[in-house]
């Protein structure tokens, strides 16, 4: 009863104002009210995640983005948060726009997201914008039923028995690697940047595996020489531009994942768009050539179960998908292009970075290199890379197996696995609202003292011998887990090991003193979806045994 006269007086006062002004005020309130609520009310007073532990040093509207940029490491400040709250399976932080984001730290929480509720999450828009321009919209960005369908289609090709047929290709490129190391000794006193070298080798491998083409990039001029006014780039230079942009380019990559700025008429954008366009045009051209080369009447007879040195991923896609007798199962040329972009980018760069960190660790732990050589010399492996290598013989090397896994644990090339809830879902007893970003990092598992012990930061391959059969496979997160586990993980490890056999058996490495890229603390590219040295990594190489 008391409110009635008060409301009456309020409306009488409003009546004396200009009616259009009142209506404008109401309209503005309707428009800005939800924004005000989302920025200032919901995160602090209404979010069901507000009870979770997490950092408080966020910046208005940009959350933890600036802190991440300033950290100098793509795994920070996330690893530091995990160690500050070691018992918390979920850690809450603010994303851009004061939005809720969750860092997943516990193994059980990882299982619930990557396995039990895997299709309740999908890649968030910012993550798509961050890397899709580089890796394409292949299987990595397929969701739900489409992902299941693509996974089933590609599974046979990536079976272990099929991949054994590519070992001769890997051995051939391993020999080429040794030739280039010999050239470095003759021409430059043995000093070289191994980041560039390994990137060229692994891209050439993926050129054969995915496209069936020699890319001729191992003898081209250094990346970046065609960045002037030319309207094209060599194949490898395109990937160099996309994966190793300059400082301005790195900043643009990060900003473009939030706000579209590729239209700005600046040099870094021009080079990015040139590399982006050239890469796609070159791959599209190869696809069209191969489509014309393959006879549709015999293409369906190609034995996907038994690829060999003359077969490749593109042949398989054309014969099995482009010319599929089932219209619902066919892939178009642009769809094939996106798949190839995914495998070329992910397949070559991750292995190149793994080789880089393996070489770095060999310079830090020369005794490990000798132990690997001793294992190779006492094994059933051929005495040199000119003799055929079998998958069984390669997998009979436990020390090499432990070494490669420990490299990936301590210096995992992939940084983030980001997902966004497509509906409300409960993880570890906590309601994760629709639209919430969840972030998983292999380093959060690999550098967690509660999982790997107090010496988790140390490189110690022998720790793998101490693991029993009861140890949880989820402790190793380099290739993710669940239905979306990396489909190329077997090929990646096979490639890693074949090249490591060549490297360990024939070469010794040392850091270059007096070069900021070779000595001292390694500066990392940050922000970055990959763990890589900024500006390369210079080493000095010499033959392990007299030739």
From TrEMBL:
Keywords: Heme, Iron, Metal-binding, Monooxygenase, Oxidoreductase
SUPFAM superfamilies for this protein: Cytochrome P450
Molecular function terms, GO-annotated: heme binding; iron ion binding; monooxygenase activity; oxidoreductase activity, acting on paired donors, with incorporation or reduction of molecular oxygen
Keyword hit for Cytoplasm: no
Needed co-factor(s): heme
PROSITE patterns associated with the record: CYTOCHROME_P450
InterPro entries linked to this entry: Cyt_P450 (IPR001128), Cyt_P450_CS (IPR017972), Cyt_P450_E_grp-IV (IPR002403), Cyt_P450_sf (IPR036396), Cytochrome_P450_monoxygenase (IPR050121)
Entry binding sites for heme: 486
Gene3D superfamilies, alphabetized: Cytochrome P450
One Pfam family in the UniProt entry: p450
Family indicated by similarity: Belongs to the cytochrome P450 family.
Protein name as it appears in the record: Cytochrome P450 3A5
Source organism of the structure: Immersiella caudata
Taxonomy of the source species: Eukaryota, Fungi, Dikarya, Ascomycota, Pezizomycotina
């Amino acid at each position: 009863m008391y409110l009635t006269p008060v409301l009456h007086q309020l409306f009488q006062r409003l009546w004396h104002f200009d009616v259009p002004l009142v209506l404008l005020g109401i309209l503005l309130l309707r428009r800005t009210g939800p924004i005000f609520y989302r920025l200032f009310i919901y995160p602090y007073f209404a979010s069901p995640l507000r009870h979770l532990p997490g950092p408080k040093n966020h910046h208005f509207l940009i959350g933890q983005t600036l802190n991440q940029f300033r950290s100098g490491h793509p795994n920070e400040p996330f690893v530091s948060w995990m160690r500050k709250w070691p018992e918390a399976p979920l850690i809450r932080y603010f994303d851009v726009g004061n939005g809720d984001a969750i860092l997943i730290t516990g193994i059980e929480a990882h299982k619930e997201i990557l396995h039990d509720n895997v299709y309740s999450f999908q890649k968030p828009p910012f993550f798509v914008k961050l890397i899709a321009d580089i890796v394409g919209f292949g299987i990595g960005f397929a969701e739900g039923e489409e992902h299941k369908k693509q996974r089933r289609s590609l599974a046979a090709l990536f079976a272990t028995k099929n991949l054994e047929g590519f070992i001769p290709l890997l051995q051939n490129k391993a020999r080429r690697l040794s030739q280039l190391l010999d050239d470095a000794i003759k021409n430059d006193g043995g000093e070289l940047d191994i980041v560039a070298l390994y990137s060229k080798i692994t891209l050439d491998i993926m050129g054969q595996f995915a496209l069936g083409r020699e890319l001729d990039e191992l003898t081209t001029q250094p990346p970046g020489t065609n960045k002037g006014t030319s309207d094209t780039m060599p194949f490898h230079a395109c990937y160099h531009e996309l994966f190793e942009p300059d400082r301005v380019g790195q900043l643009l990559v990060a900003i473009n994942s939030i706000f579209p700025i590729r239209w700005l008429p600046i040099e870094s954008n021009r080079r990015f768009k040139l590399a982006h366009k050239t890469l796609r045009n070159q791959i599209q051209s190869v696809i069209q050539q191969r489509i014309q080369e393959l006879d549709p009447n015999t293409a369906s007879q190609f034995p996907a179960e038994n690829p060999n040195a003359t077969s490749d991923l593109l042949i398989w896609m054309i014969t099995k998908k482009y010319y599929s007798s089932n219209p619902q199962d066919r892939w178009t040329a642009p769809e094939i292009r996106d798949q190839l972009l995914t495998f070329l980018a992910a397949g070559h760069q991750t292995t190149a970075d793994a080789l880089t960190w393996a070489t770095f660790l060999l310079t830090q732990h020369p005794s490990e290199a000798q132990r690997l050589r001793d294992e190779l010399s006492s094994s059933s492996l051929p005495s040199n890379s000119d003799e055929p290598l079998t998958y069984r013989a390669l997998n009979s090397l436990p020390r090499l197996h432990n070494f490669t896994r420990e490299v990936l644990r301590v210096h995992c090339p992939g940084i983030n696995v980001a997902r966004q809830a497509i509906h409300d879902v409960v993880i570890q007893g906590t309601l994760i609202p629709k639209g919430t970003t969840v972030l998983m990092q292999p380093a959060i598992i690999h550098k967690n003292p509660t999982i790997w012990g107090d010496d988790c930061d140390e490189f110690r391959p022998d720790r793998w011998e101490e693991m029993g059969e009861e140890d949880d496979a989820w402790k190793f997160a380099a290739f993710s887990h669940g239905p979306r586990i990396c489909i190329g993980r077997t090929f990646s490890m096979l490639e890693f090991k074949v090249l490591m056999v060549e490297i360990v058996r024939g070469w010794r490495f040392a850091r270059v003193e007096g070069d900021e890229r070779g000595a001292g603390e390694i500066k990392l590219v940050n922000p970055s979806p990959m763990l890589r040295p900024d500006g390369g990594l210079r080493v000095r190489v010499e033959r392990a045994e007299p030739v």
